[in-house]
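Reviewer 2 asked us to include a model.

Predict the structure of this chain.
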Amino acid sequence: KVMNTSYFAQNLESLTLKIQNAGCKPILVTSLARRVFTSEHVTSDILGPYSNETINVAAKLKLPQILPLLNDSLTYIAKLGKAQSMLFNWDSDSTNKDTTHLNSLGWKYFGRIVADEVHALVPQLSGYIVPDPALSDAIASGTILPQDL
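Predicted model (structure tokens):
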């Protein structure tokens, strides 16, 4: 189900305010990129408007941190390319058409991206993040570790 960006922003702001009113400090995260490509290393981003609304809500509510998952995941899959990005699809072992949901390999790689974002942008939580330099380096260079292929 798809909702328009205005409704998305209203819902996100409402939920974020509820979290703040409960005495918590929310951290917003932009969308995970869908693994859709127009060519081998060129992605087709349909979630940018939602990411922009997330950034706008964070700015409006003066949140100190926002995790740029859309940008970081788009950068990674563009470097990686379409063929290898499809390895993260939920249905990679069958129809390989689900470019929205992740399988366990996708959880590992995109989870690492979020962990590295938290470590870099939310220092008060970095003590809870277990480093994985090899995986972080593979992501930065746009590769998949050999043992994961």
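The mean pLDDT is 96. Helices lie at 5-21, 48-60, 69-80, 82-85, 104-121, 133-140. We have added this to the supplementary material.
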